[in-house]
Design a protein that fits this description.
single chain, 725 residues, mainly beta, 22-stranded antiparallel barrel, five-stranded mixed sheet, 5 helices
Length: 725
């Protein structure tokens, strides 16, 4: 094996230590990178404005202090700060949202759960998730430069249905903020290893904003090329079978055009087009490591035999209409169409073989998931309904029609047959605020239908003929909450909500291997229903804030994932799931120069080892991350520049020791650094990911799945430049 000289770590370690000692003398750490202040408003004012309201889960602006739950709003500056370090689509969630699991550093987001459950991902309110066949590839669907903020709702709400059992993550696109035209050009160059020929990456993106009276326009386009990543020992990262971002190219086009009209400009129409494509370049072949010897999987130069390149292809089109004064309330209607396709790398495992095509053990194939969605989302909200001060009502109706399937692309075999799901879902949500108390409640009625035609399983599953059929999914989803605002800027809340999703339908469909089966008789296709309870406390002061919450989530017929000993792929099991956890976040701003933040999360999940019996098996990395502590500190050393030091900590965990499901995962501490500086030639930013060049195995790779033993990236140095004109 080729060896590489180890880079010195002493200087980087000393810098990290000195910075943390200096910052710790003043307080806790802050995750927000401080970019150069806007010409019209200070960064502190921007943050206050952005934290005022959210729309996710309510379809109309709702003040955060009126929502009984743990809400996280990720601002534009926080997104930009993470982009200085990495363009990984989910890295900002892992770093800032306490209950979100560590990022995979890949195109796939396997194990990236929110409080132990898969969250519903939205882009401008449109689902990017495919619960019919969840392939854990829905976290990479657009270029983050077009995202203005991310709203994270922990737990389901009455106005969002299928897929929201674990919470909601809504990426909201940017809009023009001032009259006239402005273009923002951002370029970035990174070097991530020891071999300059293949370790460099670059990206260039241009966003154009225009606002003139009652018309506005956003056009964003970008192109990026990624090289290979290296671990801290100089070994190339492996090519993830579930989708790698190494050796890839991506293109993005985003257009949003709006027109305001009508009496007092109280009506608005918005047309949005989003086209995103990321694809591997096919220059590397998977190279096995050795888990027993601690040698991670890697990659070597070469063209994969008889394969197509892996990709994510996400396109969506939406037309939205808003009437701000219809029957005294505000009407929002959105119609959309979305096409989502995900192709995986080639595999030659037992479940790919078919002697009618090639001798056993010689056939390679690669799977591809395709989903077509179309739907309507509507809501009408009214404040002070019936003249009652403090009473707000929000009601609406959603329609969804989705067809998804999974094929084996090289041989044109059907692996998961086409599944068509239709849903009609009315909802109503109300809140009443009186003095220091706000009470809220709502209900959503899901009325869905899943239709699957007759199909035949693959050779590995005995070519079984399965009788198709139609399944009905009806469920009433209530929620209730209470907020009490106390003296001295304290408040407490409590909430209850019921979550609902489909159980990754494609897995039990493709795994049928006995004759006489029908779609209607597959027990595993029943919906996942979860009861969520949460209590919390919040304090907001002039220079600091503090939030803590405790939650419980129970599903009698939940979903857990285990690894098939033959295919090394995930197998779904339907057993009770009992989740409990707590989170703490704190922020401290002693003066205009320093900002500090800390987030801590702990989640524990229990399920059964067998079909019956007590809940004694602790759930592992496939569903629940170990305890996580993220710290950061920002120093604004001048009006033109700032520096942020991050520390990400994942704690050691040993579960089910000596029993079924035993897992031992090691702890991890990483440091990252960003520096911003504004000049007359634009804003420059330096990012250093894994500052001390520490070697580690990625958390999700510490459990033995199929070809997943990957080390994390070593030190990555990035230089970004942003200019407005």
């Amino acid at each position: 094996m080729k060896t590489y000289p180890t880079r010195t770590k002493s200087v980087a370690t000393l810098v990290a230590a000195l910075l943390f000692i200096a910052f710790a003398a003043t307080g806790l750490a802050q995750t927000t990178t401080t970019p150069v202040a806007d010409a019209d408003k200070t960064e502190e004012e921007v943050v206050k404005l952005e934290k005022l309201t959210v729309t996710t889960g309510y379809r109309s602006p709702k003040a955060i202090d009126q929502i009984p739950g743990a809400i996280k709003l990720i601002t534009t500056s926080e997104i930009a700060g993470t982009q200085i370090l990495t363009d990984d689509a989910t890295a900002v969630l892992s770093r800032i949202v306490p209950g979100y699991a560590p990022a995979t550093q890949a195109m796939n987001n396997t194990g990236e759960t929110l409080r132990g459950r898969v969250a519903l991902r939205l882009f401008d309110g449109i689902s990017q998730t495919t619960p019919l066949r969840e392939g854990s590839r829905n976290g990479t669907f657009t270029d983050m430069d077009v995202v203005g903020r991310i709203e994270v709702i922990n737990g389901p709400s009455a106005s969002e249905g299928i897929g929201a059992v674990g919470g909601i993550i809504n990426y909201i696109s940017k809009s023009p903020e001032k009259e006239g035209s402005e273009a923002v050009l951002r370029s970035k160059f990174s070097i991530a290893g020891y071999d300059d020929e293949d370790s460099t990456s670059w990206r260039v993106g241009l966003n154009y904003y225009h606002k003139s009276g009652n018309k506005d326009l956003v056009v964003g386009t970008s192109f990026s090329k990624r090289g290979m990543s290296y671990d801290a020992n100089g070994r190339r990262q492996g090519m993830s079978q579930s989708g790698s971002i190494n050796d890839s190219e991506s293109q993005n086009l985003f257009i949003k055009a709006g027109h305001t009209f009508g009496e007092n400009n109280n009506q608005r129409a918005t047309l949005t087009v989003s086209r995103f494509h990321i694809e591997g370049r096919g220059n590397y072949i998977f190279e096995f490591g050795d888990r027993s010897l601690g040698i991670p999987d890697s990659a070597r130069r070469g063209r994969p035999l008889n394969s197509k390149t892996e990709f994510n292809d996400f396109n969506q089109y939406a037309l939205a209409y808003n009437h701000a004064n219809l029957l005294g309330g505000s009407l929002n209607v959105q119609i959309y169409k979305a096409s989502q396709a995900m192709r995986f790398l080639t595999e030659d495992g037992a479940d790919r073989q078919d002697p009618l095509i090639a001798p056993l053990g010689t056939l390679v194939d690669q799977s591809e998931i395709n989903s077509q969605k179309r739907g309507l989302r509507s809501s009408w909200s009214h404040k002070e309904l019936f003249g009652v001060a403090g009473l707000e009502v929000n009601t609406g109706f959603d329609i969804l029609d989705e067809t998804a399937q999974q094929i084996l692309a090289l041989t044109a075999r059907v692996w998961v047959p086409p599944m068509n799901f239709t849903s009609n879902a009315p909802f109503v949500q109300a809140s009443y605020a009186r003095g220091p108390v706000t009470v809220s409640g709502g209900v959503r009625r899901e009325d869905g239908e899943l239709q699957v035609d007759n199909y035949t399983t693959t050779y590995f599953r005995n070519r079984v003929a399965v009788t198709g059929g139609t399944l009905g999914y009806q469920e009433t989803l209530p929620n209730a909450g209470l907020i009490v605002r106390l003296p001295r800027n304290w408040s407490v809340f409590g909430s209850y909500s019921k979550g609902y999703t489909l159980p990754n339908v494609g897995i039990p469909l493709r795994n049928v291997n006995t004759v006489g089966q029908s779609v209607a008789g597959i027990l595993d296709l029943q919906a996942v229903i979860a009861d969520n309870k949460e209590v919390g406390v919040t304090w907001n002061g002039k220079k600091a804030s503090f939030n803590a919450s405790y939650y419980k989530s129970y599903s009698d017929f939940g979903v857990t994932l285990t690894v098939d000993p033959v295919t090394r792929d995930f197998v779904m099991q339907r057993r009770p799931v009992d989740l409990k956890g707590w989170e703490v976040t704190g922020e401290f701003r002693p003066n205009k120069m320093f900002k500090f933040n800390a987030t801590y999360s702990h989640t524990k999940g229990m399920t059964r080892t067998t079909e019956t019996g007590p809940l004694t098996r602790q759930m592992g990395m496939a569903s629940i991350s170990p305890d996580k502590l993220n710290l950061s500190a920002t120093w604004k050393f001048s009006d033109k520049g700032s520096m942020t030091l991050y520390q990400d900590n994942l704690f050691k965990r040993d579960i089910n020791v000596g029993a079924s499901g035993e897992e031992r995962t090691s702890g991890l501490t990483l440091h990252h650094l960003t520096v911003n500086y504004a000049t007359q030639w634009g804003d420059f930013a330096l990012g250093v990911e894994n500052l001390t060049n520490k070697f580690y195995i990625l958390p999700w790779s510490q459990i033995d799945q199929f070809l997943n033993y990957f080390a994390g990236r070593g030190r990555v140095i990035s230089l970004s430049h942003t200019i407005k004109f």
